[in-house]
């Protein structure tokens, strides 16, 4: 069975999507989530607060901005309004996974729990950061370079009711990386997280950097990912991780 993280969905920027300028971000916050159908198709409600997200490459994220993976390689700075003596859960989740044989539609790129305030480094890192990437693959055509193709990555912060006890991932570079294929709604229910107190989202599209992830995942999992792709995941460095 082929597991396709990138999926074969076609979620590009919808026609008539809102483009944010300096004066319309306040009024359009709810609308951008709903007009892109991120709410209610992917999330039940718009996060009440905003997460300020800035990557070391220099890009800042406004809802529905589109980037290539090369700009998203390092963990971003994420800030949100906190309440005194509160702990938070932070997730970065691909909500556009599509695998015809599975009901799972999410891949967890990052998960940290028990964050005191917004001090992410002081929380419990459950899933290490995997930079966002996306690809379109079909068994008939292989990789498809579609300029209108992208995946939405949601950055969500939840205020916890109490401390969360959960497993810590030892090393994502192994077949256990597919443990990250989980539905966001299941995690929210399991840890009684409720609705996000803050959030943001971006789109990531296919680029040459994506091929490097396909090579690395092939090496980490021990088999060509998502399938044998000549010139992409068949070189020696794609065969085994060292």
From TrEMBL:
UniProt xrefs under InterPro entries: PEBP-like_sf (IPR036610), PEBP_euk (IPR035810)
Signal peptide start and end residues: none
Highest taxon listed in the record's lineage: Eukaryota
PANTHER family found in the cross-reference section: PHOSPHATIDYLETHANOLAMINE-BINDING PROTEIN, PHOSPHATIDYLETHANOLAMINE-BINDING PROTEIN 4
Protein name: Phosphatidylethanolamine-binding protein
Origin organism lineage: Eukaryota, Metazoa, Ecdysozoa, Arthropoda, Crustacea
